[in-house]
Amino acid sequence: MTPALHQSSLNSIPLINRGKVRDLYQLDDQHLLIVTTDRTSAFDVILPTPIPGKGRILANMAQFWFRHTQGIIRNHLASDLSLSDYLTPDELAQLDGRGVVVGRYTPLPIEAIVRGYLVGSGWKEYQQSQSVCGLALPAGLQLAQQLPEALFTPSSKADVGDHDENITYQQMVAKIGPDLAAQVRDISLKLYQSAAEFALARGIIIADTKFEFGLDEQGELVLIDEILTPDSSRFWPAKDYAMGSNPPSFDKQFVRDYLETLDWDKTAPGPELPDSVVKATLTKYQEAQARLTEN
């Protein structure tokens, strides 16, 4: 297993922010550098145990999907400058497939979540109210059942250490306005549908996922952050799928399931992960990458 990068250290350029997984640096007025580390978060808490190599997989998969979906919406990837003009050789070596140059945009204060299947918090809510994020659903649906149509269920974007909260579409409209809200919803559903069809042909069901958007200087929508990675999505092997039970997955759910067995209140600090969970999680991420990006 390769050494883990828990935190990047690039002294040649200003650090803007350390998120749950990504470190963000400023290259110039128009460009940022995203470094995807091996940090892992669950339940909005950064865990102390990194997963070696996970950051490279996430960066690679996000770039793959950004290219795959560029016909639907413009994304933040930029290729008009060289990192060697900004970083020392040692700093470049530290990146090792984790660094991505992107344009600088104003992020929207929401996360755009699309759910294609009834699982996770959606299943829990459905059992209580026959709805998901306030959207009414038919009676009699089962755990992990495909929804009659994919649902757009936005959430607020919390600071590191705080919990994201589901919001209604009307609350999103209040935050960003009706025109922008409609664009975000429609594009998110289109992105999900395109990706779900692509993935299913490769033996993977995308049960749900989240997207993030920003605005350029003209107020036009741009796809930012990460897209369709095992950190931001629920990936199921199609051959093992069956309604009524949680399918095995190629994503962060394995870590969440382990944490649910502990006596932990889901607040910081998070517990250490045992080697067995670290290795199994990395294997799942590697398989998702191979199935989706290497065929």
UniProtKB/TrEMBL annotation:
This is Phosphoribosylaminoimidazole-succinocarboxamide synthase. Belongs to the SAICAR synthetase family. The keyword Cytoplasm does not apply. Residues 16-268 form the SAICAR synthetase/ADE2 N-terminal domain. Keywords: ATP-binding, Ligase, Nucleotide-binding, Purine biosynthesis. Pfam families: SAICAR_synt. The keyword ATP-binding applies. It comes from the Bacteria. GO terms for biological process: 'de novo' IMP biosynthetic process. PANTHER family: PHOSPHORIBOSYLAMINOIMIDAZOLE-SUCCINOCARBOXAMIDE SYNTHASE. The gene is purC. Pathway: Purine metabolism; IMP biosynthesis via de novo pathway; 5-amino-1-(5-phospho-D-ribosyl)imidazole-4-carboxamide from 5-amino-1-(5-phospho-D-ribosyl)imidazole-4-carboxylate: step 1/2. It comes from Thiomicrospira cyclica (strain DSM 14477 / JCM 11371 / ALM1) (Thioalkalimicrobium cyclicum). It catalyses: 5-amino-1-(5-phospho-D-ribosyl)imidazole-4-carboxylate + L-aspartate + ATP = (2S)-2-[5-amino-1-(5-phospho-beta-D-ribosyl)imidazole-4-carboxamido]succinate + ADP + phosphate + 2 H(+). InterPro entries: SAICAR_synt/ADE2_N, SAICAR_synth, SAICAR_synthetase_CS. Its EC number is 6.3.2.6. Gene3D superfamilies: ATP-grasp fold, B domain, Phosphorylase Kinase, domain 1. GO terms for cellular component: cytoplasm. GO terms for molecular function: ATP binding; phosphoribosylaminoimidazolesuccinocarboxamide synthase activity.
